[in-house]
Specification:
The protein is of the alpha/beta class. About 20% of the residues lie in helices and about 30% in strands. It has helices at about 40-50, 65-70, 75-85, 120-130, 160-170; strands spanning about 5-10, 25-30, 55-60, 85-90, 95, 100-105, 110, 115-120, 135-140, 150, 155, 170-175, 185, 190-195, 210-215.
């Protein structure tokens, strides 16, 4: 077993994945919003690109722009699996790699008529209660409240997600969704990474985030 793992995290590529210069690493993590329009053609294009990326493992969740994964879930998953069989699509699901437990979930609080949305409070809390306590790396599309989530000074994150993070204390929490919040911060024992690739103007100006995981 390797003592160190290099995670490379991106999110919110919105169909512009081919513009990204990915650094080398062991595990590529894509935290949602892979699609520009949310179509099966978008998934086809992204999966072909993903297959060509030289990582030992590739973990992907959906986001609020990825309509096809909610409306035509079986079709989207089948195409994804056929074109990028080495990748793992996580939708309220856990996978363990080299002793690290990764859990992925696409949900965000309801806003307009997007996808994978749940009302704040009891509805979305049920989603977060599924996150296992043994999670080492949590991957969600949206941020928790107060963490790299400001839009023009107004926090947009999920209070219920923040409360669940405080309960389980994952080592890392990777997300996107709020393009303006790109960056990394450590708080309450968890390192939070907003890996949004697109900035607020939907330009791929933000670099992939590299996370060196040290293990004993």
């Amino acid at each position: 077993m390797m003592n160190n793992l290099k995670l490379v995290a991106i999110a919110d590529t919105h169909g512009m994945h081919a513009e990204i210069d990915l650094p080398p690493g062991d595990i590529l993590i894509v935290a949602g919003d892979i699609c520009p329009w949310g179509t099966i053609a978008d998934v086809h294009d992204f999966a072909q690109w993903l297959h060509d990326q030289p990582f030992r493992h590739k973990l992907v969740i959906a986001g609020n722009h990825d309509e096809v994964f909610e409306r035509k879930n079986t079709l989207a998953r089948e195409m994804f699996a056929a074109l990028a069989p080495e990748a793992t699509y996580l939708q309220d699901k856990m996978v363990t790699i080299d002793g690290l437990a990764f859990y992925g979930s696409p949900w965000t609080p309801t806003f307009m008529q997007w996808y994978f949305m749940a009302d704040r409070g009891e509805h979305i809390r049920r989603k977060w209660n599924r996150i296992p306590e043994e999670t080492d790396v949590l991957i969600t599309h949206g941020p928790p409240a107060g963490i790299l989530d400001n839009v023009k000074g107004i926090p947009q994150g999920c209070v219920d997600l923040w409360e669940r993070v405080l309960e389980i204390h994952p080592r890392y929490h990777i997300f996107g969704h709020i393009h303006e919040g790109y960056g990394m911060i450590t708080k309450e024992g968890t390192t939070f990474i907003n890996a949004s690739t697109c900035n607020a103007k939907y330009r791929t100006n933000n670099q992939p985030v590299i996370i060196d995981v040290h293990r004993n």
